[in-house]
Structures are given as C-alpha cells and as structure tokens.
# Entry
Amino acid sequence: MRADLIICGLGPAGRAVAHRALADGQSVTVIDPHPDRVWTPTYAAWADELPDWLDPAAVAATVAAPTAWAVREHRLDRAYQVLDTAALQRSLALDGARVLADRVVTVDGGTVRTATGSVHSGRVIDARGLSRSPRRAEQTAYGVILGRDLLADHPTLFMDWRPDNGAAPEEPPSFLYVVPLGPDTVLYEETCLAGRPALSPAMLRCRLEHRLRERDIPLSGTEPVERVRFPVQGGKPGRGRFGAAGGLTHPATGYSVATSLRAADTVVAGARMWTPDARAVAALRRAGLRSLLALPPRDVAIFFDAFFALPVPLQRAYLSGHDDLRGTVAAMRALFTALPPRLRGTLVTAVLGLGGAVGRGRSERST
Ligand SMILES: Cc1cc2nc3c(=O)[nH]c(=O)nc-3n(C[C@H](O)[C@H](O)[C@H](O)COP(=O)(O)OP(=O)(O)OC[C@H]3O[C@@H](n4cnc5c(N)ncnc54)[C@H](O)[C@@H]3O)c2cc1C
# Structure
C-alpha cells in the first residue's frame, strides 16, 4: 500500500511529523504496536525551543527564570516550560492518517514490512526510538509528585547539585530536579544525568528521600511516583531516521522532544536536517558526553557551576543549537577557559578519546 509518508513509531517524534504532514495535506500511514498508548512521562523544554504552531494547551506551566545550583546558585534568565503530556499527545492529532497497530520488522529504502506481513511503500520516516543496551549511557531518575499546599516554598530547580542527598563524595553524583506540573502539584526528581551504567532507581529513591528529609519536606509514602530510564546515546542521523532513532537526543541532557517538535516541518518538507554543521555539533556533543562520564564525581558540580555561569546565549547554543556550530564551539571554549586546570586536563583526555581508564573507572562503578 502506498502513502506519501510512512511513519514508523508514534512517540513524540513520529507523532509530530505525522501531525504536521497531515496539516500539509499529505497522505500518512503510521505504524506502532501500541498507537493508542497514552504518554505519561513529564516532558519539559526551554520555551524558545518549542515551535510556534504548538497548541498552547500543551503547556502545563511556564517558569520565567529557573534556578540551577552547582557550587553556587545561578538564576537562568531563560523561560522553561513543563508540558502537559496528555494534552501534547492529543494536540498532535492524527485525523485523516491510516493508523496501524503493528510492529515494523524491516525498513528497506522506501518499503516497510510489518510483523503481520503487510508491506507499505512511500517516503519512510523511522522514528522507532532507541532500545536499551549496556553500551549506551542512560539517564535514570526517581521522582515524587507533591501537592503545592504541603510546600512552604517550591522553587523551580533545573539542576540542584548540592550535596545533601546522602551520597558520599566519591560516589557517582545525582542532582535534584524540581518543576511545577500545574497550579497544584510539583515534581521532585533525583536524577542521574548520564551513566554507563546509570544509578539505579532504588539508589535514587534513597537519595531523594534523604534530601527531602534534610529540607523538611514531608513524604507520606503514598505520593505518585515517576521513574525515568532511557538511553542518551545512540541513534544515527540520516536515512529517514528521526527523533531519538535519528540521533536527536542531546547526550548531555537527554532532551529530544522539543528538537523533534521543532524539526518536524523540516522533515515534512523533505529538507535537509543533517547539514555539515549539524553533524559537527553532534560530534562535539558526543565529546561533551565523554567528558561528563570521565569527570571524577567531586568535580561534576564544579563543571556545572562553570556552565551555568556562562551567558545565557552560550548556554542556549550548547543546549539547543542543533546546527549552531559557531555557538557550540564558542560555548565549549568559554566553558573550558572557565574551568580549573585540573578539570581541563580530564576533559582534553576524554574529548580526544584517550580517557578509557578514567571513563571505565566511572562506568564500572556498581550502582
Ligand atoms: C519519565 C521520562 C521523562 C522524560 N523527560 C523528558 C523531558 O523533559 N524532555 C525531553 O526532551 N525528553 C524527556 N524524556 C526522554 C523522551 O521520552 C525521549 O527522548 C523521547 O520519547 C524520544 O522520542 P521518540 O519519538 O524519538 O522515541 P520514543 O518516544 O521512544 O517512541 C518510539 C515509538 O516507536 C514505537 N516502536 C518501537 N519499535 C517499533 C517497531 N518495531 N515498529 C513500530 N513502532 C515501534 C514505540 O512503541 C514508540 O511509540 C523523558 C523520558 C522519560 C522516560
């Protein structure tokens, strides 16, 4: 069967492309084993990353200037938005698409074969996400959802690396993430940014409970819980792949949703996403992840302190500039210059790929 566009996978990336292609008048077939599965993760993004066409109802909360704590407190003058995940999914409507509950078995050029034996041809977008693998660094987190009425104060903390979570200085670090989910609730989440292996949910739960005790935030034990685990490495640009499968996950943050939403129109138009600049940025970001994995635990907060002290345009270039090569290089250079010499040495070794011993030492830590 033919369609203008055949989209494999209905996560945020596949659904965004399907939705925008339908708006563009294209015929669309979407294939996912569970096309009606309701998304539940808490998605968030910088406001300036989200596309203009996004339904405002998909935004649950906006924070004008979140805080980051590393060694010191930093106010980030860049609006941050928490999405209403269910509303986001609904807003990426698929009216008019042919939706198949099936599993894609092979993608061969413009032909897709499914587990039930159906064959489809057209322009194929492979947005099947990333599978877990011990070779891929992952992000993990454990969070609880608290009522705002229980909290005297509920700052938005993009990252809080303060050492009040009970972890010993030589243990792999984790940070606290605090965001409003709407007018009534707040998510407190202890997060392992990237690890191979990443910290276990049980360890993160222990650290979160320790931190909240230290901050006099009471837990009843009946709070709704969010568990996070997904690869931040992997995916290959090009050949019709998109979203996490297409290498759009930022390896140093794990974010891809806003980038996929924003890039959906480029894909629909058949324009080139992976320019030479975008590929160079991806290589630099991979080097950034190697650096992060190589840092001794006690240096991680120092690294982020230097990062959050950068001017916001440089932070933006590094975190969101998918094809902003000049900005990414400028951000990395400024960060490098701001770091103490001891950290610079570690980063150079990691970036040049010479840091096997350091990287393995970190990744083999039992969690
Ligand atoms: C709790 C949690 C919180 C998160 N918070 C954020 C955040 O704040 N911001 C952010 O940017 N990211 C966040 N992430 C990461 C984010 O979920 C992923 O980056 C994002 O889902 C990737 O989107 P995707 O559409 O590329 O792939 P996926 O979401 O993995 O979707 C892939 C789709 O393909 C389908 N599929 C798989 N195999 C096949 C097959 N053989 N045939 C057909 N279909 C198939 C799957 O069923 C799935 O629907 C979070 C993740 C979790 C778990």
The chain is about 30% helix and 25% strand. The radius of gyration is 21 Å. Residues 276-363 form one domain.
